[in-house]
Amino acid sequence: MNIKELDPDSSPQAAFGARLRRLRGERGWTQDELGDRMGYSSTHLSSIETGRKMPTLRLARRADAALGTGDTFEREWREMRHGSLLEGFPEFLEHEGRAAEIRLYEVGVMPGLLQTPAYASVLAESAVKRGAITPDQAEERVSLIVERQATLVRTPPPMVFVVLDESCIRRPVGGPAVMEEQFERLIEFAEQPNTVLQIAPFDMGARRPFNLPLYILTMPDRSLMSYAESVQRGHLERESTSVVPLLTAYHQLQAEAPSQAASVTMIDQLRKGTP
């Protein structure tokens, strides 16, 4: 193989492949030999080394094990995988997957944990058209949503409390069929034994304590952390003393918002096109 075929600086994917090839060469291994150690064919490794295929988390971990590189390839994969995400969000996702309780407040769009694939795809495609992300990053975002939603059905499942600003259900995304499916998804979510769904209506006005999206996690050891973001950046807060006031405000939000039954009725009326 001509090593000049790949420019490590051309993309994170190319850098991953170049590192894999370099470390393999330093050990004097052929692609067949490394493939035997990792459980992959030499053809597959060739496509990774030349940047023709995106590595998976499984491959990254096996590369670290075979080459004795600690978690170098796994960290590189995570940076590559989450490169289009806001600061703090990738780390938040790691904690979200282990949380005992998840509380979230969202404004404007459905939260990722509740988005249907069609709804998520419309948002991702829109971001591509604006030039905010690449088509590959759009595909990764949709895949990431599917991975996040798996946390809702793990054993034991977390308790999930969701308060949506009314704008989330009023803002059309995609065509009527996309919104119909999304409304059905919300109603199905509300029927689960480990979930609570409420809509914060516009007429709550100043009684709404938050203006931006917010996530609050309660971990198995009862420690707290929160994640909030603006347009350009996100912030993960791990100090419980800073999170407790947010949790108190969240409880106040839930108390002021209509009940789950009333909220589901509002969603169902929108789904049916009735006032």
From TrEMBL:
Q: Which GO terms describe its molecular function?
A: DNA binding
| SMART domains xref list | HTH_XRE
Where the record annotates domain HTH cro/C1-type, the positions are 20-73
Q: InterPro entries under this entry?
A: Cro/C1-type_HTH (IPR001387), DUF5753 (IPR043917), Lambda_DNA-bd_dom_sf (IPR010982)
Under which name does UniProt file this protein? Answer: Transcriptional regulator
Q: Which organism is it from?
A: Streptomyces roseolilacinus
From the broadest rank down, the organism's phylogenetic lineage runs: Bacteria, Bacillati, Actinomycetota, Actinomycetes, Kitasatosporales
